[in-house]
Amino acid sequence: EVQLVESGGGLVQPGGSLRLSCAASGFTFSSYAMHWVRQAPGKGLEYVSAISSNGGSTYYANSVKGRFTISRDNSKNTLYLQMGSLRAEDMAVYYCARGPSGFDYWGQGTLVTVSS
Amino acid sequence: DIQMTQSPSSLSASVGDRVTITCRASQGISNYLAWYQQKPGKVPKLLIYAASTLQSGVPSRFSGSGSGTDFTLTISSLQPEDVATYYCQKYNSAPPFTFGPGTKVDIK
User: Fold this and answer.
1) pLDDT given for residue A99 in this prediction
2) CB < 8 Å to B98, chain A
3) Labelling B91: which of A38, B22, B104, B108 has CA 20 to 30 A away?
């Protein structure tokens, strides 16, 4: 059974940092590009970041470019999102998701709250 | 970047009604279009990919069509369990795999 399990969310002060993890199981993790999507409270889905199957290519939305870093460890079947210089507008539920033809599997989401 | 729009932003229909949601891409994306259903407090669920291919386990009352820039999601007979927000997403070539703003569907 395919599973994606996020962790690492929590309360952080503005300007702070947080690292999200997404542990994958039930499929050959190293064969898939992976993605981060976020959803602010009461808002729609926002595509945040992507990484190719071997980690060689990455993408960032303009809203997070220069502040967030996506990475993966294929030996540990884990996807990461290092978030820095956090702002109030980064507060959201963060989902990891698997492609490639649409996102067929999503994690349960992890809530990031940015507040002083 | 390609922008995705959806219409309407919300709709209210009766049980058994046929419901159609439209998604438009600002540039052609062939058939690289997915539809998702998100119920309140839940994780988005893939309904349709490649514009018209039903994901395994999705009821056949859901269907998708379109190519290029204009796409539709149709619910042939609305059921109470279909109350949700529906999102389209383009996934052609490279990221960003942008989502539409969503269409909220409820029961009249």
Assistant:
1) 87
2) 47
3) B104
pLDDT at B17: 98
Interface test with B, best of A34, A38, A103 (most B CBs within 10 A): A103
Q: Per residue, what are the HEC states of B30-97? A: CCCEEEEEECCCCCCEEEEECCCEECCCCCCCEEEEEECCEEEEEECCCCHHHCEEEEEEECCCCCCC
pLDDT per residue as tens digits for the range B45-69: 999 999 999 999 999 999 999 999 9
- pLDDT of amino acid A10: 97
Q: Does B57 touch chain A (CB under 8 A)?
A: no
Nearest CB partner across the interface for B87, out of A44, A101, A104: A44
Q: What is the pLDDT of residue B92?
A: 84
Residue B99 forms contact with A (CB below 8 Å): yes
